[in-house]
Write a structure and sequence with these properties.
By secondary structure, this protein is an all-alpha fold. The protein contains ten helices and no strands.
Length: 214
């Protein structure tokens, strides 16, 4: 017997569109006001739905915020790891990972919401859990890039530097750095280039004082 689905088939696209609107509205609310001041009434109004519908999907406000952030982060594309040979190939893999990870975050409500979530606690600790789970996925990708390469030494420190850079860049309202800037960041993390000495009036005095590295 052939079963023809009518109403459910038409309903799924509408549900998908509603979910997208809820996620967008929630991220904008979280990014603008933070978890404590975020309002389910405003989120529902912006998404074109009701508070009751939000409650049926995720429950209380903290669960709505965490659920929307989780949905947005889970939908992000993963960075590809090509694993070419040589130092340059590892640097290119790391550069692509930074670019892919940062593109949806820099200068966006998602990036700001992600940064806020990393510092969340108390009633909104679930937000931090979601953000840290995303970082765990990034950490695994970074390990895949570095393992069995000359840069495996001090791998945990290199990964911490990469994640720290992504945290800072995601929190800024500016657009993502370009590929040349990201390549330099990757090379610094890998130790392929030395940090530059600061340039400015203090440089001359630092040299006179014999400060190391200046």
């Amino acid at each position: 017997m052939t079963v023809i689905e009518t109403e459910p088939a038409r309903g799924r696209p509408r549900q998908s569109a509603l979910t997208a609107r809820i996620v967008t509205a929630t991220l904008e609310e979280l990014a603008s006001l933070g978890p404590d001041r975020a309002s389910l009434a405003r989120i529902a109004r912006a998404a074109g739905t009701s508070q009751q519908a939000l409650a049926r999907r995720w429950g209380v406000k903290s669960a709505v915020l965490a659920g929307a952030l989780d949905a947005a982060l889970a939908a992000l594309p993963g960075a590809s790891v090509l694993r070419g040979s040589g130092h340059g190939a590892t640097a290119e893999d790391l550069t692509r990972c930074l670019a892919t990870s940062l593109a949806p975050l820099a200068g966006s409500p998602l990036g700001r919401a992600y940064s806020i979530a990393l510092a969340a606690s108390g009633d909104h600790a679930a937000l931090r859990t979601v953000a840290l789970e995303h970082e765990a996925r990034l950490r695994l990708t970074l390990r895949q890039i570095l393992i069995a390469t000359p840069f495996e030494a001090e791998m945990d420190a290199r990964i911490a530097l990469a994640l720290g850079f992504l945290r800072l860049a995601a929190a800024t309202p500016e657009r993502a750095p370009d590929m040349d800037q990201l390549r330099r960041v990757a090379e610094l993390i890998l130790g392929l280039i030395a940090p530059r000495a600061p340039v400015g009036p203090a440089q001359g005095q630092a040299a006179q004082d014999g400060l190391p590295g200046l």
